[in-house]
Design a protein that fits this description.
disordered N terminus; mainly alpha; 0% strand; 8 helices
Length: 224
């Protein structure tokens, strides 16, 4: 490892290319690994963000249409029989599963308690699907800066070793190594900030949608 650092130290003085690709290629294997991990986390985070943005936009629209049709229908059973075979709306799925449970059991004993349990179970099931990926966003938001900081600390350690080996403290020797190290921190923040913002937004959207499902369930129970 000292030989690698020494060879880096010799070439630092002449290498003034500070492009992102050059910084990555000059970094050692540890810093490169950190950069690759952070880039992968950032890409997957954006994939989750885009998917959840489209999901909430879609289900909010579908639920509004479902509620309007439901409350304009003559009866819950007739509306249940008219539902399509493939349903994407979580609210419609909660209603469908509750009606299936209600129609299978002909006994009217404790019907309110049974319906309440089925509706609560259906809501929990749908919210689990909706909130899939939230944990990843929260994890990236909380850990990415520290992963980047680890890459920075490691890179700065290598820079100081290069200074010690070359016995030259000029800026030309120090700057490239420090730039490589700080690149990891910048990527950590770049991955973390969108993840934190998106997690907070989607968590709020999730709570609002969960409340919407609960409100529908309570109103639905009143007509059973």
């Amino acid at each position: 490892m000292e030989a690698d650092i020494a060879s880096q130290a010799v070439g630092l003085g002449t290498n003034t290319d500070f492009s992102l690709l050059s910084l990555f290629l000059r970094a050692d294997i540890v810093v490169k690994s950190v950069i690759i991990i952070l880039i992968a986390c950032s890409i997957y985070s954006w994939a989750v963000i885009i998917e959840k943005f489209r999901l909430f936009k879609k289900i909010n629209k579908l639920s509004e249409e479902f509620e309007e049709k439901f409350w304009n229908s003559k009866s819950a059973e007739n509306f249940y029989n008219s539902l399509p075979t493939e349903i994407e709306d979580p609210m419609a799925l909660v209603f469908q599963e509750a009606m299936e449970g209600l129609l299978k059991k002909k006994s009217k004993v404790n019907i309110s308690e049974r319906m309440t349990a089925m509706l609560e179970g259906g809501i929990e099931k749908q919210m689990t699907k909706i909130e899939k990926g939230f944990t990843f966003l929260a994890t990236v938001g909380s850990t990415a800066p520290f992963i980047g900081l680890f890459g920075t600390v490691w890179g700065i350690m290598n820079s100081f070793q290069s200074i010690a080996i070359s016995r030259n403290t000029s800026l030309a020797i120090v700057a490239p190594g420090i730039a490589e190290a700080l690149f990891a921190t910048a990527l950590g923040l770049l991955a973390a900030i969108p993840a934190v913002v998106a997690y907070n937004k989607f968590n709020t959207d999730s709570q609002k949608y969960s409340q919407k499902l609960e409100n529908f369930s309570k109103r639905f129970l009143t007509i059973i």
